[in-house]
Amino acid sequence: MPLLQEGRKYTYADYLTWPDEERWEIIDGVPYMQAAPTWQHQAISVELTSQFNANLKGSSCRVFAAPFDLCIPDNEENDEKISNIISQPDIVVVCDQSKLRKTGYFGVPALVIEISSPSTARNDKLLKFNKFEQAGVKEYWIVEPDYKLVSVFILQENKRYGRPEVYAEDHKIKVAMIPEFEIDLNSVFV
């Protein structure tokens, strides 16, 4: 990969030229390299994805786990010009399958889950939080494996995330988009 140029705004077209073995995200045109996830991270991701998958069967919604690109266009950008690639969020639930193409989803998903680590916490809690809120992602979860906590943000009528509901390992989370569905955190945290 060529050296990144400071001040340059990168796009999805640039992202597609980067090596597959490297994990990158582009937020507001700025690329961020991602570290490899820990086994705990992967175990949490597999369990959450499994619970979502089991409960979404028969619905119009689908769950995807990283590696899976999420491209959120500003206004009417065409795919190659998109500079808000929240590439490879840990878990994404999408309900408009017409926006599935190429390497992932091009639009605003119903729900995003990030499994945070010390190296990703700032982006998860600040940059991505703001981008997801601005884009209109209805539900955003931040999972903190070290503390065995999940913060759930729900988009309010004023198009802002309200105060989070915080859940511990012995709780169940009602999924806002599917009220009859609960995530059992006892089996999520290892």
TrEMBL record:
<dbReference type="Pfam" id="PF05685">
    <property type="entry name" value="Uma2"/>
</dbReference>
<keyword id="KW-0255">Endonuclease</keyword>
<dbReference type="GO" id="GO:0004519">
    <property type="term" value="F:endonuclease activity"/>
</dbReference>
<protein>
    <submittedName>
        <fullName>Endonuclease, Uma2 family (Restriction endonuclease fold)</fullName>
    </submittedName>
</protein>
<dbReference type="InterPro" id="IPR012296">
    <property type="entry name" value="Nuclease_put_TT1808"/>
</dbReference>
<dbReference type="InterPro" id="IPR011335">
    <property type="entry name" value="Restrct_endonuc-II-like"/>
</dbReference>
<dbReference type="InterPro" id="IPR008538">
    <property type="entry name" value="Uma2"/>
</dbReference>
<feature type="domain" description="Putative restriction endonuclease">
    <location>
        <begin position="13"/>
        <end position="185"/>
    </location>
</feature>
<keyword id="KW-0540">Nuclease</keyword>
<keyword id="KW-0378">Hydrolase</keyword>
